[in-house]
Amino acid sequence: MKHFAAFLPLALLMPACGAKPVEGVTDARITLPAVTGRPGAAYFTLTGGEAENRLLTVTSPQVIKVELHDSVMKDGMMSMQTIEGGVAVPVGGKVAFEPGGKHAMLYDIAPSVKVGGTIKLNFTYANGRSIEVDAKVNPPGQGGSGGHAH
Ligand SMILES: [Cu+2]
Prior knowledge:
Immunoglobulin-like; ten-stranded mixed β-sheet; 8% helix; globular
C-alpha cells in the first residue's frame, strides 16, 4: 500500500486522455554564424517521457565541438555560461532551448552544411539513450544570434 500511495501523484500528472508522454526532441534547427569560423547555435525542445531523464551531450558528425550553454544576465549584459552536468528533463515536461536562453553552441561547422539543408544532431541521455534528429539549417541572424559573441 505504501508504494501504491507514492505512485499516485505521478499518475495524476499524465494527460487525461491517457496518452503517455513520449521522450524526444522536437523543433530542432540551427543558425549559421554570420562570419565563417565563428560558432553557430542550435535550438530545440526536449520533451520528457514516462521517467525523468537528463540530457548529457549534443554531438554532430558535421561539427567539431558542441557545448551546452545558458544565457545569463550579468550587470545588465547578456553573457553565456557552459551548462555543467547536463539538463534535467522532467516527466511529461518540456525544456526549450531557444534564442536568449539555453542553446547548443556549434564550433567548427563543416562547410557542407548549407542554409536550407539539414544537419544531424545526436542527443545522448543519462539513461544511455541516444536520439538522432535532422535539424533545419537557418541563415545567420535568424532566431536571434544576439549574445553569441564569445
Ligand atoms: Cu553560447
